[in-house]
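Query structure, 334 tokens:
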């Protein structure tokens, strides 16, 4: 059963946050001053169980979801994640089942995740400069361990993409070194504009490095040409190295918003459905699964919520809206 929202957009991707906790404190996501020792994370009993996630995922697949991404917080801090991957892979044949991770625990987990049915992985890495990287993750975590995670994923046969958030004054000087390192590696490097997600990272428009500036800087050394999108609604704009060294992507959600093609739903770790990354309100689906609602009831609820959707926050963003309260990315799932 397919469903479209009030702007005619179907639901194709589901991002599932499996935990709101993380072993990093990236300055643009979970700043230490806020997510310190006194921060109230969700309790274990509040999290959806793997069985509950599986049940909800099937309902979304019935509505047309073709791709599921496990995220968080840091998804690999949730114990036995490969068991969830196996459940989702077995229940939904042909599903594109992927994971976004900071890579810290990936070296040990890559092979079990692939064996369980993961189809690919995205690893976040903001710099190759150890000092810059340690300052950005703010837990003194070394670059070398993330690179080992990337190698382990590739060795396990998982296609790898690398995400780099670029923040003015923090890691913009690392852009070229990252491009050089992944040029010819077979891994697609994607540059992400620093976004005003959540209310705690102190976002300012001045800290955003526009994607056009990033592309121009790389193009000056490693000439690029644009590539057609893989599919309608792809968020990353694709560029290919003219020398055959592969491609990069840029996610310009601030300077070139792409709400018009947005087909993403987000399920928080406690089972709230958010229809936009910048939403302030989520719809409680956990209550339905915990009272053993029928498949028909679940389908009706998802169809009703998606059918009423009209979000296009990024297209309407101003400095003023950026200061409005929003849920944190670590909670909603990046
Ligand atoms: C919230 S994280 C969750 C998964 C995992 N912990 C990781 O870092 O890959 C998902 C993605 O969101 C990105 N992200 C977090 N805060 C952001 C922000 N303020 N602007 C842009 N991207 C952000 C991260 O760099 C990461 O690639
Ligand atoms: S971006 Fe990912 S690794 Fe960094 S703090 Fe947020 S959830 Fe953790």
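Result returned for the query:
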């Amino acid at each position: 059963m397919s469903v479209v929202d009030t702007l005619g957009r179907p639901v194709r991707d589901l991002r599932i946050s499996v935990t709101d906790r993380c072993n990093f404190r990236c300055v643009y996501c979970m700043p230490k001053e806020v997510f310190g020792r006194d921060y109230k994370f969700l309790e274990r009993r509040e999290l959806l169980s793997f069985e509950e996630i599986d049940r909800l995922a099937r309902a979304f697949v019935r509505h047309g979801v073709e791709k599921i991404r496990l995220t968080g917080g840091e998804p690999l801090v949730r114990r036995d994640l490969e068991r969830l991957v196996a459940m989702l892979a077995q229940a939904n044949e042909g599903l594109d089942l992927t994971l976004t991770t900071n890579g810290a625990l990936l070296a040990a987990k890559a092979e079990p995740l692939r064996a369980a049915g993961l189809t690919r992985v995205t690893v976040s890495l903001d710099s190759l400069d150890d000092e810059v990287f340690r300052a950005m993750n703010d837990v003194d975590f070394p670059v070398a361990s993330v690179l080992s995670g990337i190698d382990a994923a590739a060795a396990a046969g998982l296609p790898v993409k690398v995400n780099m958030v670029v923040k003015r004054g923090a890691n913009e000087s690392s852009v070229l070194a990252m491009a050089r390192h992944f040029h010819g590696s077979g891994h697609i490097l994607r540059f992400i504009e620093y976004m005003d997600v959540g209310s705690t990272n102190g976002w300012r428009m001045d800290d955003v490095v526009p994607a056009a500036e990033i592309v121009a800087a790389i193009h000056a050394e490693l000439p690029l040409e644009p590539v057609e999108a893989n599919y309608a609604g792809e968020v990353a704009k694709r560029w290919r190295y003219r020398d055959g060294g592969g491609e990069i992507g840029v996610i310009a959600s601030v300077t070139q918003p792409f709400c018009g093609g947005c087909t993403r739903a987000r399920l928080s770790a406690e089972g709230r459905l958010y229809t936009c990354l910048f939403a302030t309100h989520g719809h409680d689906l956990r209550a339905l699964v915990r009272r053993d609602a029928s498949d028909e009831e679940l389908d009706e609820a998802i169809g009703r919520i998606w059918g009423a959707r009209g979000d296009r926050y990024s297209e309407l963003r101003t400095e003023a809206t950026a200061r409005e309260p929003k849920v944190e990315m670590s909670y909603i799932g990046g």
